[in-house]
Amino acid sequence: QVIDATSLSWGTRVKGFIACFAIGCLCSLLGSCLLWIPKKGLMLFAVFYTLGNIASIGSTLFLMGPVKQLKRMFEPTRLIATTVMLLCLILTLCSAFWWHKQGLALLFCILQFFALAWYSISFIPFARDAVKKCFAVCLS
């Protein structure tokens, strides 16, 4: 249905997904390298890491299409992870630019990572249950 509703072929969609995802990974990696620059490093890290996550999430728009992606993001099983992830994206940038709190920016980047990971594994059947069981075994 998605292929019929767009002018992009499936091959073009896959290439768009790969390119956007690669740009996201590159931005996140670049942000990690910039973290060590004195004074502005954490701000640059927060920006590039956040842009990398946005590009990575955006890459799935090529595969599913924007409407279906938004519907799936806000399904009840993903609502909390999506909300936390989007909130952390915003709070990371606020911490870096407006509040100038480096510790908060770093904390929100870490929360971004975990929220994005939890969101991502929600697309894999039974993955969340497996992760919960692994943590239950490790903690007991």
In a few lines, what is going on in this structure?
It is a multi-pass membrane protein. This protein has 140 residues and is an all-alpha fold. The protein contains six helices and no strands.
Characterise the protein shown here.
With 140 residues, the chain is mostly helical. Helix 4 packs antiparallel against helix 5. It folds into three domains: 30 residues; 29 residues; 65 residues. The longest helix is centred in the N-terminal third of the chain and has 25 residues. The protein is globular and about 45 Å long. The mean pLDDT is 88. The chain contains six helices and no strands. Helix content is 78%, strand content 0%.
Order of helices and strands: HHHHHH
Please provide the count of β strands: 0
How does the helix and strand content classify structurally? mainly alpha
Percentage of helical residues? over 70%
Task: Count structural domains.
Answer: 3
> Hey, roughly how much beta strand do the residues contain?
under 5%
Let me know the largest β-sheet. Answer: none
Please work out how many helical segments DSSP would assign.
Answer: 6
Report Rg: 17 Å
End-to-end separation in angstroms reads 46 Å
Low-confidence region ranges: none
What is the approximate shape? Answer: globular
What is the residue-mean pLDDT, rounded to a whole number? 88
Protein name: Vesicle transport protein
Function: May be involved in fusion of retrograde transport vesicles derived from an endocytic compartment with the Golgi complex.
Pfam family, one: Got1
Main location: membrane
